[in-house]
Amino acid sequence: MSTIRLDGMSKGFGNGRGIERLDITVDDGEFFVLLGPSGCGKTTALRCIAGLEEPDGGRILLGDRVVADAGRGLFVPPDKRDIGMVFQSYALWPHMTVNDNVAYPLRARRVGREAVGRAVVGALDRVGLAGYGERYPAELSGGQQQRVALARALAASPRLILFDEPLSNLDAQLRARLRQDLHLVHRETRHTAVYVTHDQTEALALADRVAIMKEGRIEQIGSPDAVFRAPRTRFVAEFVGYENRLAARVLSVDGDRAAVALPGVSAPLIARRTGPLEGGRTADLLIRASRIGLAAEPAAGRAEGQPGGSSNGLPVRVEDVSFLGDHHQFRLRTADDAILTANIPAERCTPGLLGAVGATLRAILPADDLVALDAAA
Amino acid sequence: MAPAPFHDDHHARSAWSWLRRRRRRLWPLPLFAGLALLLVWPAAMLAIGVFRTAPPGMPGGWSVEPLLALPGSTKLWSAAAHSVLLALLSTAVAVVAAAGFAFLAQRTDLRLRRLVTPTMVVIYATPSLFHGIGFSLLGNPAIGFANAALRAAFGPEAGLVNVESGPGLLAVIAIRATAFTYLLLAPAFLALDRAHEDASLVSGVGRFGTVLRIDLPLLTPALSGAAILAFVAGLHSFDIPLILGQAAGIEVLSTAIYDRLVHAYPPQYATASALSLLLVLVAAALSLLQARVLGRRSFVTVAGKATRQHRLRLGRWGLAGNAAILAFVLVAVIGPLLSLLLGSVQSVPGVLDSFTLVHYQRVFQRPGMIDAVRTTALLAVGVGALAMTLAVLLAQAGQALPVPARSALRLMTLIPFAMPGIVTALAVMWAYVGVPGLRQIYGTVWMLVLALVVVALPFAMQAAQAASAQIAPELTAAARVSGASAPRALLDVVGRLIAPSFLTGWFLVAIAVAGNLDVPLLLGTPTLGTVASHIYQLQTQGQLGDATALLVTTMAGLFAAGLSGLGALRLLAVKRRRPALGTPRVPRSSTLERQAA
Amino acid sequence: MLRLPLLPLATALSLTAAAAAHAESLDSLYAKARQAGETQLVLYTPYGHLQSVFDAFARAYPGIAVQPAVISGGGAPLVGRIAAEAASGNHVGDLVLSGMGDIATLTADGRLEPDTPDEAAALDPQYKDANGLFQVPFTTLFTLVYNTTLVKEEQLPRTLDEAIGKSWAGKFGYTRYTGAAAPDLVGATLAHNDAITDEQLKAIKANGQVSPTAAQLLTHVAQGRVAFGLWGPTQNVGNLQRDGAPIKVKYLADSAVTFGPGLSLLRQAPHPNAARLFKGWLLGTAGQTALTKASSYGTRTGAPVPPDLPALEGYRFTGIPLAQWEGQVKSFRTRTLAIFD
Are A289 and A343 in contact (CB under 8 A)? Predict the structure, then answer.
């Protein structure tokens, strides 16, 4: 069984900040991602799981085994935890060949020479580096080095593989490719994995479940889909790519819908709530730039459409338009002086729209894409 | 366009304009000339001196006999064997001990681990003269304090410690070599990428195995470089074999050279020069090897994210580790220091009955003592400044020169590394006394200055290189582009930035000069002595109490100077509480800055 | 050889008269020195026990300080220093006070300036050079010195053979032979009197512990490293005793040696008047008395025995005549080289 449990784990950073009571359970074979900005404690949590650092409080269990218990002073060193780890800087030993690097954990477990040879070949094969065995790390590219690091982590078939921002040092193209490879490898091997990153794309692409951390606490845990579509706090929403935020007042709540009023906008908007929300409270409205639509402002007196439909919008003045390849980015200012960013795909941008700088348009915020959070969340 | 008529009426000026155009490329010439005079000329004259039959400055003939007689002299062979053996064994001990201490200090949770680096710095900074006399008082077989303590504890037969023996000599040299090697190793240890160790740990190899399989192989270039330097230093050691080895009847090459110059009449200049040349060639070859070893692509990478390193918990082994550190501090620092203090207040050092301050009173009434103190202080400060300035100029010039000139410069600066102090003194004698006209400086303080600058140059260059490494070449370039001339840019940018490191280097060089024995011993005169030569002479005249009192006073003086220097640096740092040049500053309005200043 | 301290009255009277006349010439030297601005004189010597003598001179002639440059052991360092000064033309030293071996070498090298102060008339012929190149102002006794806490006087050996025999193996010290320093001169004197054999030298090498210099031999005895030392320079014993060291002198009649250093004026001395003044004063009554107080045996007829040292009863060795010094020292050196090195 290769489950992980963090039981009220805490660790101070020494500068007054730290991880407070972390409670996480990772299931057997699950790919668990810790997502958050630098300094949030995700790497520290990972290193505590690895045994490279010792928690100040709480317990860590790998499977049934307690590997760290601050209360009882129990601590199992990393070399006894049967894990594999991939580092941001690859950490390949420069004085050893690729074969020796990959064989190292096997030799540490005193596996016989023949078995070692076979396992190394198999591991290199799996990461697509068959035949590179006799090279030295310095002769490999960044992407190749990271694959070797992965092969090394997998070589001894440990119960658990840990990833510490392994793709951060690679350029964007390589990152995408390696990310897919990681996904494939995990599908094959089904090891339990804990993956730390600050990149939401990686998190969403790889995770079975993702935990978003901020300042030593978990803001939200859930499937990528849940987190992506239903962020529960402002921090999470902004982290997973909700670029736009508006202040509003809650008028009424009905099921998972809420009617909100924006200052300076006569008609209320319908939004989707993801957490507790009450009438009368101030709320944050969050929406992705790619979900905002733009239309001409209806002439005064014309009947409004159904609430929640195409009339779920507000007047905005176009301040700037930029061309970003496959879409145009519009900078919009609301009556309340808030800024909205809308990304409209190029094919939907009419010349009239593109020339609308300075004009007032209607920004459409579809209710399904408009998330309403209590302002205190 | 009509062709410009350069060639017809400019012949007379063509040479001058050629020079003028190349003026910019010729700027290193004075520097090279100065260095050649300072370094290459004495070395060359030393080589020539091997074949002269008369002392420097005296008319005489030429002969190869002294050189040919060398291989037949069994005494010299045994001196050479002693030198090599001492150097080899002390290096071996030093490398193992230094690596061990570095590991204990940086990777474990030993309570005493913070003592290690300061102890090593103190040992390294202490001139070996102090260790020689201190250990002699501590460990001589008859009345050494260590033996007295042992006898008090275990009975009159327990006198085990004998520093006046081969093993004793080796132990003292090994202690100094350990400190030297540690200080070379520690930065390399620090620079190890922790991720490499983490990767080994998570792969299933424990701490100790990780040190053996990962850290040490990665440190191989630094280790071998340090080992070579320690070996050369062992070959060159003079003060300690002089004080301890003679009592044990052990001669090494450096004391053999001194002996043949001072205790033979007529002095055997040719033989001494030949031995010196031998030492220099061996050391030069080794230094070249060391440069090559370190030049190879080093495996040490600069650490990436500064992750906090979990220190190895030693548990029961912690006791042994702490004990080892404590033992080293006791033997290497506290023991000799206490011995010196105790010896200076006894009527006859080693005779434990009465306590007296007469030695302190007497030693400063000694004729020539005040002059010696003044001479030492002047030399320390003056030579320190000269050597550091020269070293900084060399370091900066080295960056700006084309590759062949840079290699020539590096080769020249290898010479002081290869010459022990006694050889430098002899070479300077040949170089200046041997030349009519320059001969006037014999017996003056200038000859001491010349020799001491050469001796101090390796220390100064280490400090200068470390300091210069902090300065990106872009900073000087920026100054030049803004209109400053080269010397101006040097002074404004480099000077300001490296001021703290420059001062530190100056101080370290000053200590080395103040404690230097071989140069004043050979080049001083009975009326031009330094504190070190007075200490030695007092010791050989049997006035050990006075010698010890003088030693203690000098050490106290150096310590006080060091503390005040540290204090001054602290003050400087606090006053200049601004980000260092070279890091981007958030632009603020000048009014705000003036208000804040 | 020392005269017994009983003198014919006539000699005493003539000396007194002479002394009165010579005081004048010393005064004129003093005046000349002051006029020339000579405020110090530099004396090269291996003797480190003469500070009280220099102080006495400073009291007698204020304004001129004696600047001793103690070169331990004398010998090559001393002679080499003088040679280097001559070669470079930077003259620093005025006077040399060192063993006859060194004086002989310096004479051969032409470094010395003849100078016969009037006070030299009261010296025995063996203590002065006919050409005036040196005079011997005092002699030093070299004999057994012992540590009083380790050995009682009754237990001490009576003869040289007893001292260097098996019963004292490892318990006595001797000074290293380097060629022209004190132990070499002692040995040469004994050799000149056929009082030392090669077997005895070998026994010393086998059974004794070596000290690098004569002064350090005394330190080793005082520290108790050895029970006694052969041929210790007794002029330093007094200072050590005053410091509280448990050290004493034992006069071994069959091997004790006395000889004295030569005091010479160096050529091209920077302070010639002050140097001559000091030389003359040292050979006069005042200087000789000061020397006696400094544990040295004066050479002027009538000089008293130093208060803390033994009277030299039965001393029978003859000193080496000057002309034979170099030869004797060299031949003894050959013997020591063969046995010790």
Answer: yes
Q: Whole domain around residue B548: which residue ranges?
A: 35-54+359-575
Question: Is residue B556 in a domain?
Answer: yes
- Give chain A's contact residues with B (Cβ, < 8 Å): 14, 43, 47, 50-54, 77-85, 87-89, 91-95, 104-105, 108-109, 138, 149, 152, 156, 162
Residue B115 lies in a domain: yes
Q: Span A242-374: which CATH code? A: 2.40.50.140
Instruction: Give, as one character, the DSSP assignment of residue B108.
Output: B
pLDDT of B38 reads 87
Give the pTM.
Answer: 0.79
Q: State the burial class of residue B336 (Cβ atoms within 10 Å of its Cβ: 0-12, 13-18, 19+).
A: buried
ipTM: 0.82
Backbone angles phi, psi at B518, to 5 degrees: -65, -35
Alpha-carbon Rg for chain C in angstroms? 20
Question: What percentage of residues in chain B have a pLDDT greater than 90?
Answer: 21
In chain A, where are the structural domains located?
4-234, 242-374
B44 with B105, same domain? Answer: no
- Is pLDDT above 50 for B583? no
Mark yes or no for CB contact B198/A43 under 8 Å. Answer: no
Residue with tokens 């050996």: C157
| Same structural domain, B44 and B109 | no
Domain A4-234 has CATH 3.40.50.300: yes
Q: The tokens of C312 are what?
A: 């030299």
User: Omega of the bond prior to A315 within 30 degrees of 0, cis?
Assistant: no
For A19-55, what is each residue's pLDDT tens digit?
Answer: 888 999 999 999 999 999 988 889 999 999 999 988 9
Does residue A325 come out as left (phi exceeding 0), alpha (psi in the -120 to 50 range) or beta? left
> Which residues, numbered 59 to 88 in chain C, qualify as contacts with chain B under a Cβ-Cβ cut-off of 8 Å?
65-73, 75-77, 79-81, 83-85, 87-88
User: Residue B210's closest chain A neighbor by CA?
Assistant: A79
Average pLDDT, chain B: 81
B346 and B425 assigned to the same domain: no
Which of B334, B356, B378 is at the close of a domain?
B356
Q: In the A/B pair of chains, how many CB contacts fall below 8 A? A: 83
pLDDT in tens, C19-73: 555 555 888 889 999 999 998 899 998 887 888 899 999 999 999 988 888 877 6
Pairing verdict, β C208-211 and C172-175 = parallel
Summarised one tens digit per residue, pLDDT across range B7-42 is 455 555 666 766 666 666 666 778 888 888 888 888
A93: chain B residues, CB-CB within 8 Å: 196, 199-200, 214, 217-218
My answer on whether B238 and B366 are in the same domain is no
Cβ C48 vs Cβ B546: under 8 Å: no
